[in-house]
Design brief:
Blueprint lengths: L1 H4 L9 H23 L2 H8 L8 H24 L3 H29 L6 H29 L4 E2 L10 E2 L6 E2 L1 E2 L3 H7 L3 H4 L17
Antiparallel strand pairs: 1-3, 2-4
Length: 209
């Protein structure tokens, strides 16, 4: 639902979001290192009294290598604004990130003591919450750009719906590509590249006397 309402219509364009996502994935590897050394597969089976065992090999192949490769591919796809890659960012942020981190505070309560992954769950929770915040903020900014709203920006990066022009103030204007937009923004159309600049009086040909 978060993906449909946000980055499905407006895939992320900010490298900052991708960088935070990769940072969260990197921290997840640290988190899973604690899980592995604490024998998480066996502990989770014993916690819920499951009749089926879960080996460390299966844990590594599934959650470290397979999902690890999937997160890297999602980051690469997000750079090219691929929608399914944006879905994977949300899947990580909510499922593998937020819910997973919260569960590691619940497991010790059920067990009555330390549970593998507890020590790094706090950092995992912070990184996931930050990623969710940036995904929502990025979606709102892109919706504002698509509507042609004047907004403060931190960079002069181009967008798929227009371009951000450098100005002397702290605000940039999203140019839709029409003379009307330039008039509303108070910027001459010549400056926006919508019309050829008018020749100055020095460039005009003079009549022979």
């Amino acid at each position: 639902m978060g993906w449909i309402k946000t980055t499905y219509a407006h895939p992320i364009q900010s490298r900052k979001v991708v960088a935070v996502f990769l940072g969260a994935v990197a921290f997840q590897f640290i988190h899973m290192s604690e899980e592995y050394t604490g024998r998480f597969p066996h502990e989770i089976v014993a916690l819920f009294d499951s009749p089926r065992d879960w080996s460390e090999k299966s844990f590594l192949l599934t959650f470290v290598f397979a999902f690890g490769a999937l997160w890297v591919l999602a980051a690469a796809g997000a750079l090219y604004q691929i929608r399914i890659a944006n879905y994977m960012l949300w899947f990580y942020a909510l499922g593998a990130g937020l819910i997973n981190a919260i569960s590691h505070f619940v497991f010790p309560v059920i067990k009555g003591g330390y549970f593998p992954g507890l020590y790094t769950a706090g950092g995992h929770l912070i990184m996931s919450a930050l990623l969710i915040y940036l995904l929502v903020a990025e979606s709102r900014e892109l919706k504002a750009e698509a509507a042609g709203v004047v907004r403060p920006v931190s960079s002069k990066a181009s967008s798929s719906t227009g371009r951000l022009l450098p100005m002397t103030s702290d605000y940039d204007v999203l140019v839709i590509g029409s003379d009307e937009a330039s008039r509303e923004a108070g910027i001459p159309a010549e400056r926006l590249g919508l019309r050829e600049p008018r020749p100055s009086s020095a460039m005009l040909p003079t009549r022979p006397a």
